[in-house]
What does this fold into?
Amino acid sequence: MELIERYLQAVQFWLPKGQKSDIIAELSEDLHAQIEERETGLGRKLTEAEVDAILMERGRPVLVANRFLPQEHLIGPVLFPIYRFVLKIVMLCYLAPWALTWLGLMIYKPGYRAEQGDHWMVALGSAWGALWTTAFIAVGTVTIVFAILERVQAKSHFLEKWNPRKLPAVRNPTLIPRSSSVFEVGANLFCLIWWPTYMYSRVVRIGPDVRISLSSLWPLFFWGVLLLAAVNTALASVNLMRPYWTGRRATVRLVTDFIGSALFCWLLKANVLVGIAVVNVSAERTIPIMNLINLGKARAFPASVAVCIVIVCVDAYRIVRLRTARARLTLEAIAH
Amino acid sequence: MHGIESFDNLRLELRRGCLVLAVLGALREEQCGYTLRKSLAEHGLAIDEGTLYPLLRRLEGQGLLASEWRLEDKRNKRFYGLTGEGTQILEQLLAEWRDIDSSIRGILEKQGAGSWN
It folds into this structure.
């Protein structure tokens, strides 16, 4: 019965140290009893294939041994949902911006592109490797922190001490905080007064000495901002009176934010600034300043696009959430 | 397929708790692991050795069972039996079992046939 000895030896390898011989003696006895009973029934010795089948039925040695081991885990069921949540945050707030920054550098910085191999596939390969290293370190660090927390929690049971009164208030996706509406009304009213007063002309004066000249595109931008400020003032005023989102108002917010974002990104791309004149300062000295401003605008463009996309996505998500909430309410009403 | 899997998992969960009771009940008479497994199977509660032996060790660790190695039919076998504490716990568990049984019967009788279909 060499096969049985080999099987038991394989099981023994995975067993806890102090109990190896005891468990193996018991398993061996059980196996021999089963085989003996089968042989008595058949009136002959079992063939190797039949012994093989009995061992197969009992399962892999590592699995058999595993049942004798104490249950262990790196992160237990109490901390695991928090661990998963933190990992998602890490992915969203660390790895996603990392990828976006890389994309921005590849598109807008030829020097970086050349450094990466100047070919998209080569650059993607090297970035993929770097991303994995970053992801591995981030996920590994979070896992180690949670494994330590698990050990601390097992000893101190700190997660068992909690107070229901300290739980956050029930979230209402349709509610608009009055404080944010007040702020919006104030900011947009200020814009409505300040903007036409100081930014109406294509020549903007800052004090008696500085004069900024803007391109012929400026009126388009000027009226766009003014119109948006007017619509936003009206929307914020309605929101102040009726502090909950409706589908119509959420759509207006999406449209104004989309137009505002497009206008802002376009301003960064278009060279609106055509000249700076300062009293008693030569043009030779003001041109580098102007170039620096235009360069800054161009550099800020990718990040601005990313921020604008996020804003528009948040607005779109609000509409989806409102629709879902309305559908749920309708279903509940039908059910009742 | 999903329904069969769900049933298997639920049945496993249901039997897991009952097995402790069955093992303690069967060990009111001293038995070795193999004969215990056979007697449980004969009563419709088949249990594989990978589940039985760790369970026996756990119950022994909790002081509910006691074991000793003895020679029988020319073979060294480990015999298990209930301790005084084990007997006491078995009585308590049986009382609990009867309570659960009567509660479930009550719930099912109250709801008629016990099925919504």
Observations:
- The longest strand of chain A covers residues 273-278.
- DSSP finds eleven helices and three strands in chain A.
